[in-house]
Structure formats: structure tokens, C-alpha cells
Amino acid sequence: MRVLHYYPLCPYSRKVRLCLAEKKLDFSQEIENFWEKKPELTNLNPLGHVPVLVDLNGSILTDSTAIVEYLEEAYPDRKLYPEELLARAETRRLMAWFDTRFAQEVSLVILWEKVIKRMAAKSMGQSSVGPDSNLIRHTKTIMTNHLEYLAWLVDRRNWLAGDHFTLADVTAAAHISVVDYFGDINWEKFESVKNWFMRIKSRPSYRGFFTDRVPAIAPASHYAELDF
Ligand SMILES: N[C@@H](CCC(=O)N[C@@H](CS)C(=O)NCC(=O)O)C(=O)O
Fold this sequence. Notes:
Elements: E1 3-6, H1 11-22, E2 28-31, H2 39-42, E3 52-54, E4 60-62, H3 64-74, H4 85-123, H5 133-156, H6 167-181, H7 191-201
Parallel strand pairs: 1-2
Antiparallel strand pairs: 1-3, 3-4
Helix pairs in contact: 1-3, 1-6, 4-5, 4-6, 5-7
The protein binds glutathione.
């Protein structure tokens, strides 16, 4: 059986989960508390990062972009890169944007402050530390710039990179869905982005996220709603 080692609210893990589901590839899931650096994970990936995919033939793959590109080549039936050369370049540009800029400025900051910081302290026997409210406020301001850019794109295109649903949509949705878990997006201000996100939430590949939970933090009330 193909196995994905992942953490439910890790955006990179979500990118690979969406990709596997879009391609209709069966897999079983192993949740890894990556901050604990347990041998079950470090034996597969010495860096102790998730996601890690162990494919049917036992091949071990790490790094979400390397994994989705591997899946695209190994299982080309349902393509997530567009056919057209320039649209492929645009897809890669947007994937890189979300995996670096959006992650460093928004999704990973929120995830760290709201969940991982507390869990990591607990696993080291240290007293719990709450989120830094100034940093969260600053992060939400920065996120507004990203959402404005996203609105600019979806106002002009059917999907993020052009006419077709691609890995750009997968990657962006993976990061945004993490922030949405905490209810940190003011959707009323970004109607066109909300419509794009609703279309993604309606896809069968997204369903697995609805039941994701992390200890002590319930998702926002609209998190599992298709029409929010
Ligand atoms: N470039 C990697 C990044 C993966 C990553 O940073 N994952 C985080 C969880 S969201 C992690 O495992 N961090 C462990 C650490 O920083 O030690 C990818 O795309 O898969």
C-alpha cells in the first residue's frame, strides 16, 4: 500500500494529499507529530520533515514539490500541470509563491503560533506558550496583500494559472485551507477569492480535510461548509 506520512494542518502535506486524491491514487495515512523527530519519521527522512510518501514499489519521496512532480510523471492519467508551456511556467511560479512567500509570511506563522509552538513545548515538558497576538495581527495584515493579489488573478482567469485547474490551485488551496481552519480569513472582503475557494472545497479531493482536527483547537464554524 502507498503510505503518506503527514501532519493534518501542514500545508505541504495538504498539497500532496490533494494531488493524490485528484489523481485518484489510493493511499493510507500516517499522522506524524514532526516536531518530535521520532525514528518512524527520521528513518524515512533524516530531516524529519513531512510530507513523506512511500510509493507502491517502496520508493521514498520527500519534499512536496518533488513528490507532486514525481506523481505527475509516474501517474500521468489525470494531469495537474497544464499542456501549454507558458501555463506550466505560470503554474510553477504560483506554486513557488505560495510555498515560499505565503508560507513564510502567513500559513506557517499562523500554524506555528496557534498549534506547533504549544505542542512542541509540551513534548519537551516545558510550560505551554500561547500565540503572540501582535505577530498574529501583523500576519493577518500581510495576508490581506496576498488575498488582494489572489483576487486580481481570479478576477481575470478561470483558475489561478489560466483556464484549467492545476497544481497552482492545489498549492494555494493547501496553504489557504490551513489559515481557514482557524477562521482567520475575512471572506466577506474577498468575494471572488471566496468563490474560487468554494469551487475547490466542492471537489471530492478536498473532502478529507473536513474531518482534520488538532488538539485543543476546534476549526472555525464554517470550516467544513461548502457554502460559507
Ligand atoms: N520544502 C518542504 C517543506 C516541508 C516542511 O517544512 N514541513 C514542515 C511541516 S509543515 C516540517 O516538517 N517542519 C519540520 C521542521 O522544520 O523541523 C516541502 O515542500 O515538503
